[in-house]
Write a structure and sequence with these properties.
The protein is mainly alpha-helical and about 80 residues long. The chain is built from three helices and two strands, in the order H-E-E-H-H.
């Protein structure tokens, strides 16, 4: 994926927004197995993936609380939902 980015191979690719972390994920990437771009689909139990994802997001939010007073509201709002 890094190679594709550096070689400007993602300019015509469709992206989807991750609903929890908010970053853009390509729907396809040259040289990357498309299944890897949708990790939820690779878990045997999609519900367990969702629980793990939400737990990770909560840990990010909790860990970031100590820095909130040092950043702008826009930066603080950019974290996981």
């Amino acid at each position: 994926m890094v190679r594709a980015i550096l070689q400007d191979m993602l300019k015509d690719v469709t992206f989807r927004k991750d609903p929890v972390f908010g970053f853009e994920v390509p729907e396809a990437c040259p040289g990357v197995d498309q299944r890897l771009l949708n990790p939820r689909g690779m878990w045997a139990d999609p519900g367990e993936y969702d629980r793990t994802l939400n737990d990770l997001a909560a840990k990010f939010r909790d860990g970031f609380k100590q820095f909130e007073s040092y950043v702008s509201p826009e930066v603080a709002a950019a974290g996981p939902r």
